[in-house]
Amino acid sequence: MGTYRNEILELIQPLFNDYASFGFQIKEATSEELKAFDETALKNGVPEKAIFEMKRFYEISNGIPCIDIDIHKASEPLIYEFWESKKQLWIGGWDMDLYLWSKGKFHLGDGFNLNYGEDYIFDDILGLLTKAFQDHYPASDGKYSH
């Protein structure tokens, strides 16, 4: 197993490579974006664990801009769309799937289900993305292939 950073990059880099001609590239969140994320999350009462895990991802890639998968940027207000009503952070999604943080964990579910079952609950974004890629690219062993 590599470092968290290397595992995230190994998972998402092929996706960005395939869309490089459209100008997509992995970009880390800037220190200003991370600071603003911290301030907004703390203002909203988001637990430290969620903030830590999301920042850990944003330090590698400030979101994934809707190329098959969409992970909201650190500055995206949609992250807090369900916070007041459900105490859920909307991380992003893929087709009809939603990526959420709730109850101390990351979840892969949809508009009706927080998650699709125990196999769809994760401690970090890496686990969530790994499962999402496995579900969407089963023929290629969970690796992006277009």
Characterization of the model:
Strands 1-2-3-4-5-6 form a six-stranded antiparallel β-sheet, with helices on one face. The two termini are 25 Å apart. The radius of gyration is 15 Å and the shape is globular. The longest helix has 15 residues, at 4-18. It has 146 residues and is α+β, with helices and mostly antiparallel strands. The chain has five helices and six strands.
Features:
146 residues; alpha+beta; six-stranded antiparallel sheet; 5 helices; 6 strands; 38% helix
Number of strands: 6
Query: Which percent bin holds the helix content?
Result: 25-40%
Number of helices: 5
Radius of gyration: 15 Å
The largest sheet, given as strand count, sense and whether it forms a barrel, is: 6 strands, antiparallel
Shape: globular
Oligomer: single chain
Structural class: alpha+beta
List the secondary-structure elements in sequence, H or E. Answer: HHHEEHEEEEH
